[in-house]
Amino acid sequence: MRGQASRKTILAFIGPAVFGLAIVGIAPLLYALWTSLHFFNLTKLRQIEFIGLENYANVLTDEVFWQAMGRTFFLLGTALPLQIGFGLGIALVLHKPGLTILKTLTRLSLVLPMATTYAVVGLLGQVMFNQKFGVVNQLLNGADINWIGDPTNAFAMIIFWDVWQWTPFVALVLLAGLTMVPGEVEEAARLETKSWWTILRHVQLPFLIPGLVAVLILRTADTLKLFDMVFTLTRGGPGSSTEFISLMIQRVGFRGFDQGLASAQAVILLIITIVLAQIYIRVFYKEV
Amino acid sequence: MAVTPSDADPGVFTAATGTKRRIANRSVIWQVVLLLAIMLVCVFPFYWMVTTSLKTQIVALEAPPVWIFEPTLDNYREALFEDGVLRTLINSLIIAVCTTGLALLLGVPAAFALARFEFRGKKDLWFWFITNRMVSPIVLALPFFLIARNLGLLDKHITLILIYLTFNLPIVIWIVTDQFRGIPYDLDEAARLEGASQFTIMRKICLPLAMPGVAVSAIFAFIFSWNELMFGLILTRSEAKTAPAMAVSFMEGYNLPYGKIMATSTLIVIPVLIFALIASKQLVRGLTMGAVK
Q1: 8 Å CB contact of A214 and B288
Q2: Which of B176, B252, B265, B155 is nearest to B219 (CA)?
Q3: Distance from the A132 Cα atom to the nearest Cα atom in chain B, whole angstroms
Q4: Which UniProt keywords apply (chain A) (predicted)?
Q5: How far apart are the first and last CA of chain B?
Q6: Going by C-beta distance under 8 Å and a sequence separation of 6 or more, which residues neighbour residue B133?
Q7: Which chain A residue has the Cα nearest residue B121?
Q8: Cβ distance B173 to B114 under 8 Å?
Q9: How far is B202 from chain A (nearest CA, A)?
Q10: How close A246 comes to chain B (CA, Å)?
């Protein structure tokens, strides 16, 4: 019978992994929880003192925190539709029959942005978007746009790189959905109508929904995680115009040295993430 | 050559009349143009990174940028041997290989248990693994920094090796569980009738068949660890400094050595690219944790 194993056997198999992950994943979280209930400043380590929920109260009423949160969701709200739009376009082009070799090459080139080290994307951004000797301004007919030093432009630049890096991911997810459409169904539909839009809406869309949901949840989680690329590109600036939530927590904790406050912010971020993960599981792993 | 539609194109069957054929041809041309455009957008930043890495500082700072110039490997030589990028690359390699190995060692048996046994709390375990994939590293970086500081573990390889387990272990367990599930249970059964222990069954029967999944998960773990910046930045100073952290440290000062920064970037990206291309077919599955196959 399936699943017949003694408790000891199961523990022997799964124990080491659980133990390992508990040490590096749970113990630090408990410590963060403890820190978040204290006044804990790296420059005033003698004055550590229990202050209850004061840090949480400060975070929840802190305008800067909510601004960073709003900025993060604004980035998601602008980048994700672009990623889905372009991604769907790319998936449809790749799904069209014919041109096998060219399509394989395109598919391989889609891997490049996804695999690029996030930090390197930011460094590359600095080089390509430089006002004076950047190639982007050159390609824009010698425009003299200050990308990195202007709040709006810097934000646009972050959107550009996020879209560049993650559109291929969305495209490949949606392509996987398109290939799930049974061949006969699609061919029958093509005999009925020539409009690609009708086919997309009525034949292909149902097969794309699971992929779209996965993209929505994972992109939300990844945007809340976003740090490396923005850190190397703008460090959150100019001002705080590109300071997203993870960058802000890092600044408060390591450049402002207020570990207590930063931990409270991190715990709140963690709660949001757990809710997201719950939704993800509910949608995709019913059978477990 | 590429403009001819293949036999698989349904357009060919319906394109009986000349007009229809012309429409079909035009749409093929469009497809070619679009495919080339997609490739160009994906590849261009790479092209620019590599060419910039081959420019001298003077050429790199020319405005508007030059496209044709005499390439030089000086940036690589200087970065690798004078600025110590080589050491940080070795650090990154040591850390990525060790954490991947450790993740496999702990993760493969756990994956076997998740695929083969029924037990209480399995669902919670699953949930915990996925949550780890989604948690922002900053949440762990704050307490980990304080703990590592108290234990004198700052700037040590082992610290990063351990903390990278938080995302490597879930990904390994994920992909390998999936792979184990695909192996018919009859094989286990037959071996058990001959008196093999569960451990022997895993090692001798299932693991060889699950090798593709193990390899892909190892590639993922390697890529994620190699690419990681935040922990490297916060938890290392010099001894265990990783390559991405090194690339960032070039960004200080007024006159930035762009050629050198791009040379370092190229050195960081090349190994990742090779691995990612090897695993390209599984990439989506890995990134969505199996939700999209």
Answers
A1: yes
A2: B176
A3: 6
A4: Cell membrane, Membrane, Transmembrane, Transmembrane helix, Transport
A5: 32
A6: A221, A277, B167, B170, B171, B289
A7: A288
A8: yes
A9: 10
A10: 6
Residue-wise DSSP of A210-269: HHHHHHHHHHHHHHHH--HHHHHHTTT-STTTT--HHHHHHIIIIIS-BHHHHHHHHHHH
Phi and psi at residue A39, to the nearest 5°? -80, 115
- Domain A62-284 in CATH 3.30.1050.10? The answer is no
Q: Do A114 and B32 touch (CB under 8 A)?
A: no
Q: Tell me, yes or no, if A45 comes closer than 8 A to chain B by beta carbon.
A: no
What is the domain partition of chain A in residue ranges?
7-50, 62-284
Q: In terms of pLDDT, which residue wins out, B253 or A140?
A: A140
What the block records as the tokens of A243 is 């300071």
CA nearest to A213 within chain B: B291
**Would you say the C-alpha torsion A206, A207, A213, A216 has a positive or negative sign?**
negative
Given a cut of 70, whether residue A49 has pLDDT beyond it is: yes
Please report which confidence band the pLDDT of residue A256 belongs to, taking 50, 70 and 90 as the band edges. confident
Task: Please count the other Cβ atoms lying within 10 Å of the Cβ belonging to residue A237.
Answer: 16
How near does any CA of chain B get to the CA of A136, in Å? 10
What is the amino acid identity at position B78?
A: E
Concatenated DSSP letters of B54-123: TS-HHHHT-SSPPSS-----HHHHIIIIIS-HHHHHHHHHHHHHHHHHHHHHHHHHHHHHHHHB--TTHH
Q: Strand pairing of A38-39 and A49-50?
A: antiparallel
Distance CA A54, CA B177 (A): 43
Of B129, B131, B290, the CB nearest to A274: B131
Q: What's the confidence (pLDDT) of residue A105?
A: 92
* Residue A254 near chain B (CB below 8 Å): yes
Q: Which residues of A touch B8 (CB under 8 A)?
A: 97-98
A contact residues 178-217, partner B, Cβ 8 Å cutoff: 187, 190-191, 210-211, 214
CB B145 within 8 A of CB A250: no
Closest CA to B287 of A114, A53, A69, A106: A114
Strand, coil or helix: A42: coil
Q: What is the DSSP letter of B4?
A: S
Residue A42 phi/psi, 5-degree rounding, is: -60, -25
A273 residue type, one letter: T
What percent of chain A lies above the pLDDT cut of 70? 98
Give φ, ψ of A3 to 5 degrees: 85, 10
How confident is the model at residue B142, as a pLDDT?
Answer: 86
Is A117 in contact with B265 (CB distance < 8 Å)?
Answer: yes
Interface residue A95 vs chain B (CB under 8 A) = no
